[in-house]
């Protein structure tokens, strides 16, 4: 259980500053995820536009809520 959230946030912030971005490692991770998706049959999409209407409706609702709450 975390007792001091501020200390944890400070620790995480310092840790992130120290870590260097390894772009090649990031590319390897993305490539592995893509290969796994292909193996599972997720990619290539059978119908890339399937569900697009729902995504558009969700985006409209999210965008309207963020404008109202400002």
UniProtKB/TrEMBL annotation:
<protein>
    <submittedName>
        <fullName>Uncharacterized protein</fullName>
    </submittedName>
</protein>
């Amino acid at each position: 259980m975390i007792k001091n959230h501020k200390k944890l946030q400070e620790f995480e912030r310092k840790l992130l500053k120290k870590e260097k971005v390894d772009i090649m490692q990031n590319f390897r991770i993305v490539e592995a995820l893509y290969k796994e998706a292909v193996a599972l049959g997720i990619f290539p999409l059978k119908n890339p536009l399937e569900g697009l209407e729902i995504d558009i409706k969700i985006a409209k609702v999210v965008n309207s809520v963020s404008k109202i709450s400002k």
